[in-house]
Design a protein that fits this description.
Radius of gyration: 21 Å
Mean pLDDT: 85
Distance between the termini: 54 Å
Order of helices and strands: EEEEEEEEEEE
Number of strands: 11
Structural class: mainly beta
CATH superfamily of the largest domain: monomeric porin ompg
CATH architecture of the largest domain: Beta Barrel
Number of domains: 2
Helix content: under 10%
Strand order of the largest sheet: 3-4-5-6-7-8-9-10-11
Shape: globular
Number of helices: 0
Strand content: over 45%
Length: 164
Amino acid sequence: MNGSNYNYYDAAGNLVLNQKHGDNGRTYMPDVSGGIKGKFGDYEVGAFLGYDESDESFNVRKWVRGDIGMFGFTVMGLYSDSVNNGYFNYDGFSALVGLSAQVTDTVWVAKDIQWWDDDSWRVIGNVGWNVAPGFSVLVEASYGDGDSIGNEVKTGMLRFERSF
């Protein structure tokens, strides 16, 4: 019955209809994840692997991050074999490139571009300001298009953060 649909009774004795249980009804198995990263001067390289037990799917993330003077960059590749994967909700490959700059001691800007293998894409821009120690403001805007994220998605955010 592995991977099939069937009816079962939950712990309270209620009939649950047509549920998919790829693990033959054993819901105690945890998701498993692990990763490794290394820092080499101003650069970081890492990889992450996650297995979503309830969906019987896995995902992989790999990245390179670095700083060159006042500029920073990130390149990331993501893959999942199921749209229901708890670590990355997409069935396929996605790539992300991010660039940032520390404009002054308290102001930074960033731009991320993400692409999915179904030709969906998204651009995100941020401006952050560390107003005072423990208080910052972030403005973010994004625009995306494609089946994976919805057609012509526009979002924005204004965030005030105070830490003590």
